[in-house]
Structures are given as structure tokens and as C-alpha cells.
Amino acid sequence: MVFYLIGPVIWQLITSLKPNAILTSLPPVLPEKVVFTHYVSVFTERPFARIILNSFIVATSTTVYCLAIGVLSAFAISIFDIKGKALFLGLVLSISMFPPIATVSPLYLLIRALGIRDTYLALIFPYATFALPLSIWVLSSFISEIPKELYKAARVDGCTPLQALWKVLFPLAAPGVFTCAILVFIFAWNEFLYALTFTTTVQSRTIPVAIALFPGLHEVPWGEMAAASIIVTAPLVILVFVFQKRIISGLTAGSVKG
């Protein structure tokens, strides 16, 4: 199963190291000669460094925004007694149920009316809208597992609600925050439809759209596309491996009571 799942990644890596990466009916599995020209040409013949910077800015800004709003919302939902809490969470979750293809047209009209098309804001706002419900759900389920007595004790000791959140609850909720941050970052890093619709130039174009536009009129640069996909996938893999313990603890929060 592991080999089946990582098979496409291995195939992309092999393709990126071939001198002539041409798809045939039965291509050789291993390259006859290992070259790194495709990796070099991705940066020398294309503005790929700027594309990576665009994706990093958009994904990071979306993640920070979702965490800032999500932590406060989850704190209020989990700690305070709010009437209609379940209904509110249901309404929040319903936002993420709309398929992107059904919302791209009205969002395009709104973004064009606001004059922010082909900017970072044109991507950050829609991404945050659809990633924020996930953030609230993940964080609220995790904070709700923290005993409320800790918050009450902090309040008795003189902490304001925000001080109790930052000094007491936030350190305990760190695994959930890391999980939420990584999930939101990956979503914003890999999103394609909105990025294709709301951006038109290299100044704001993100990685998925840039790779999709690699093919020319009479040529498909498979080697460069494979090299680019490996370059942009490696940081996500490293990020997940570094924080895998926090991700697992965050995803399994609330699964066992007692």
C-alpha cells in the first residue's frame, strides 16, 4: 500500500531526472543518465522563484488569518455558554460544503468589483473563507477537551479572558493549532481553481496554475513539470514529517474520553 501511494511521486522524481522525459507506451523505468537540467531550467527559463514566493505569501497569510480568527472563535465556543452553539457550528460548517465551481463566478464578480483581481487579496479572502470553518471545528474540538477549571483558575488569579487564553489554554492547545495550521497551509498551497480564475500574471500567480501553464502549443515539457512538482512538494513533506507527532495528536483529539 505504501509503494502504491508513493508510486506517483517516485515516477515524477524519475521523470525529472531523465534527459528526455517523453511519455511513450512503455518508457524505461530508470533513467539511462541522471541529469538535473530540468531543475535548472525551471528557475532559469521561467519565473518559478517568483511563483513560489507568491504561493508562500498567499498560503502563509491565509494560515495566519484563519488561526487568528479560528482560535478566538473556538475559545468562545468551547469555554463560554453560548445558546445555539450547535446551530452556529452547523452554519459555519455549511460554508465549506459549497463546491468551488458553484462559487467561482459570484466570487469573480465580487473580486472584480472590489478591484483586487490579480492580487494576493483576491486569493487570500476566498481561501480564508473556505478554510476558516475547518479551523474553527478542529480548534473547538481540541479546546473543548481542556478542563474548564484551568480557565476558571486563571481568571481567579487575575487573568483577563485573553490572558487566560494565551498563557494557559493556548500552550495546551498547541497540537491542535499546529494541525490546523498545516491543513490550512496545504489547502492554500495546492488550490487551483480560484488561483486560475482570479490571477492573470506572474505577479500573483501561484504554483498549481504555473505548472499547468507549462505546456506550449506544440510541446509538453514533462521533465520540467515533474521537476517543478517535486520542488513544490518537498517542503510540504518535510513540514509534515517535522510536525507529525503534533499533527497526529491534534487529529485524534477528542476521539477518546476519560
Descriptive keywords:
mainly alpha; globular
Describe what is shown at a glance.
By secondary structure, the protein is mainly alpha-helical. Helices cover 71% and strands 0% of the residues.
Describe this structure in words.
This protein is mostly helical. It has helices at 2-16, 37-44, 48-79, 85-95, 100-114, 121-143, 148-156, 161-172, 174-190, 193-198, 207-212, 222-242, 244-251. It has one domain: MetI-like fold (Orthogonal Bundle), CATH 1.10.3720. The protein is built from 13 helices and no strands. The mean pLDDT is 84.
Distance between the termini: 34 Å
CATH class equals Mainly Alpha
Helical residue percent? over 70%
Indicate the radius of gyration in whole angstroms: 22 Å
Main sheet, how many strands, which sense, barrel?
A: none
Q: What's the architecture, going by CATH?
A: Orthogonal Bundle
N-to-C series of helices and strands? HHHHHHHHHHHHH
CATH superfamily: MetI-like
Structural class: mainly alpha
Q: What is the domain tally? A: 1
How is the CATH topology named?
A: MetI-like fold
How many helices? The count is 13
Indicate the mean pLDDT. Answer: 84
Q: Tell me what portion of residues adopts beta-strand conformation.
A: under 5%
Q: Find the count of extended strands (DSSP E, 2+ residues).
A: 0
Low-confidence stretches: none
The dominant shape is globular
